[in-house]
TrEMBL record:
InterPro entries: DHquinase_II, DHquinase_II_CS, DHquinase_II_sf. Substrate binds at N74, H80, D87, I104, S105, R114. Catalyzes a trans-dehydration via an enolate intermediate. Homododecamer. The record marks R19 as: Transition state stabilizer. The active site is at Y24, H103. It is an enzyme of class 4 (lyase). The gene is aroQ. Pathway: Metabolic intermediate biosynthesis; chorismate biosynthesis; chorismate from D-erythrose 4-phosphate and phosphoenolpyruvate: step 3/7. The keyword Amino-acid biosynthesis applies. It catalyses: 3-dehydroquinate = 3-dehydroshikimate + H2O. This is 3-dehydroquinate dehydratase. It comes from the Bacteria. Belongs to the type-II 3-dehydroquinase family.
Amino acid sequence: MTRRVLVLNGPNLGRLGSREPDVYGRQDLSELRTRLAEVAAADVEIDLRQTDDEAELIGWLHAAVDAGEPVILNPAAFTHYSYALRDACALITKAGLALVEVHISNPAARETFRHTSVVSAVATGTIAGFGFDSYVLALRGSDWPTRPS
């Protein structure tokens, strides 16, 4: 039986590879998709998505609750102010599903406004500052099987 892990990405992450490469690196989402597929166990499907639309992201979280699917989430700029997103994330964990908040950079080492996450308090865990390895660590550190290292 194949299990699906949603890997959801918020605003501006569709510009990875060209947006502030000194902060976010030169790899894009297709390279992230390939990397996660290489790490995931054979029976785990990675469903990687990105949107700049807060309502669409919230809809995906609602669908994850309904489908019983765990989520790896990079909320991007929504991290700092979207209480609507925070409430949708709380639905995931209240349903007993894992929700791992990830960040490519380390928000705590950046501008002051990035230091606060409204998502962290309802997430299963948070991993930040390791580039694309933040996603890999989220996948490996969860209840989802991965290939041996």
